[in-house]
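Illustration: Transmembrane 4 L6 family member 4-like isoform X1.
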Amino acid sequence: MCTGKCSKVIAISLYVLAGVSIICNIIAFFPDWSTKYAKLDSEENGARITDEVKFMGGVIGGGIMCLIPAIHIHLTSSNGCCANRCGMFLSIGFAAAGVVGALYSLATSALGLSNGPVCLFMETPTSVPGWGRPFFNNNGSYLGDSDLWTKCIEPKGVVEFNLGLFATLLVVASLELVLCGIQMVNGLFGCICGTCGGREEA
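Result:
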């Protein structure tokens, strides 16, 4: 496959993945599909939204920092101004920025899974319910024991909600990391050998 065609496949894939990443991060602000927790959190009534959601790894890292490189990478696959050795060389730098963004999204997603969600819970059956992170110190072991998930009283189903979204972000960030890594190699070959396009300019 020509380096230009490879760039096109990578760019289109990154568009889709960046879109999924942004959507998942935004949805994560609304546990139980309600806006009230985001509103209470913004009014400084105590944490109601998981910290890793507010780090915006899906929007900034897996979204914007991968979307911008995808645009340039896509341009290197066309017959436009970037479809030359210089454009392919620049795509290496853009892909490296995508790697950084994907790593940021990957890290925040992994932390979100490991630390668990913010929820209303009771430490013991006789204690007063309070907001916090009941799984914060168990190193993610709660993930394999669904019986523990019932500790969270509110928002309803918040453990499954966060688990699904952070797991999706983790997979998406991993794919973005691989694709941007491939584009760095592809860009190097394109810089040396050209893009196989209709015209070649330095």
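Reading the tokens back as a structure: The chain has six helices and three strands.
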